[in-house]
Amino acid sequence: KSYVFISPPLTWANKFCRENYTNLATFESMDDLKMLQRPDNSTSPSWIGLDSNSWRWSVTGKTSTTTYHNWASGQPDNGNGKEFCVTMRTDATWFDDNCASTRPFVCYTGQRTYTMIPNLMTWNNAQAYCRAHHTDLATIDNALQNEEIFSQASANIVWIGLYRVAWSWCDRSTSTFRNWYHYVDLLMTWSDAQKYCRENYTNLATLESMDDLKMLQRPYSSTSPSWIGLYDDPESWKGTLGSDSNSWRWSVTGKTSTTTYHNWASGQPDNLNGKEFCVTMRTDATWFDDNCASTRPFVCYTGKRIFA
Ligand SMILES: [Ca+2]
Ligand SMILES: [Ca+2]
């Protein structure tokens, strides 16, 4: 298969993502991703590859808050299209490197107490180790911290907590694969919230499993009930009095759940006063049917992510 590299404005890219996501989600290998890389080694912001917004710190899943870095000259270069993780070299500079390489690594604990772990591990295993025994792989916000880690590393090439999201242009936020839900703190009716999500993300949030719910909990910190993408379709009542389980639809598909997962609060849905056709999630993550004309914050969904 082959891909055409396209470079439209970002707004267009977002539209493209929404309309073509199914096709885009079929990359099967790193070779597929490589084919998508910029043919011209351009340093202008790109959707894929080496732009500064594609780098994340392990502990936050976000780009640096300080923009500090210490890349070696010519790095990152994504050698062979396979370098998504970052090492500190023996001169304290940073190189992007193949995540499958096994190297010692530096964890940190609490307020930046660094510890070098001499065990040779892949970046992913190193990350898991640090998370299990310390806080995370080392985050470096400034030159002083870089020096501290350099001295800990004692002349080894070590993994640090920086990695690259290989594919981020279908999600213009700085979130990671751990967080594909976006809490929007604007008060809107359900319909306006749906429109907002469709224009800026993919759709209102779809929750088809406990895993989805868990993923939502991290960004979901509101103290108010918030719209999710579930609504009752009166057209499908077919003579019943409403709110039968088959009449609920997810905004993104217009269809009932493919998994039958739900998290209704006890006694819900109750279609109070015959006016509750839209669904909110409460702060305990349970669902209530609610009046669609109420204005509430809401949760958008960005669709599936592809990353290395
Ligand atoms: Ca490199
Ligand atoms: Ca209700």
Structure notes:
The chain has 308 residues and is α+β, with helices and mostly antiparallel strands. The protein folds into 3 domains: 45 residues, no CATH class; 115 residues, no CATH class; 121 residues, Roll (Mannose-Binding Protein A, Chain A), CATH 3.10.100.10. 20% of the residues lie in helices and 24% in strands. The chain has 6 helices and 14 strands. Strands 1-7-2-3 form a 4-stranded antiparallel sheet, with helices on one face. The protein has a 4-stranded antiparallel sheet with strand order 11-10-12-13, covered by helices on one side. The chain has a 3-stranded antiparallel sheet with strand order 5-4-6, sandwiched between helices. A hairpin with a 3-residue loop joins β4 and β5. The longest helix has 15 residues. It starts with 9 loop residues before the first helix and ends in a 7-residue tail after the last strand. The N terminus and C terminus are likely disordered. The structure holds calcium ion (2 copies). One calcium ion binds next to β13.
Key traits:
Mannose-Binding Protein A, Chain A; four-stranded antiparallel beta sheet; disordered C terminus; 14 strands; 24% strand; disordered N terminus; 308 residues; binds calcium ion; 6 helices; alpha+beta; single chain
Question: How are the elements arranged and paired?
Answer:
Blueprint: H1 10-24, H2 30-35, E1 55-57, E2 83-88, E3 94-98, E4 103-109, E5 113-121, H3 123-133, E6 136-137, H4 143-153, E7 158-164, E8 181-188, H5 190-200, E9 203-204, H6 210-217, E10 226-232, E11 248-250, E12 278-281, E13 287-290, E14 296-301
Antiparallel strand pairs: 1-7, 2-3, 2-7, 4-5, 4-6, 8-14, 9-14, 10-11, 10-12, 12-13
The structure holds calcium ion (2 copies).
Protein name: C-type lectin domain-containing protein
Domain C-type lectin: 1-108, 109-180, 181-301
Keywords: Disulfide bond
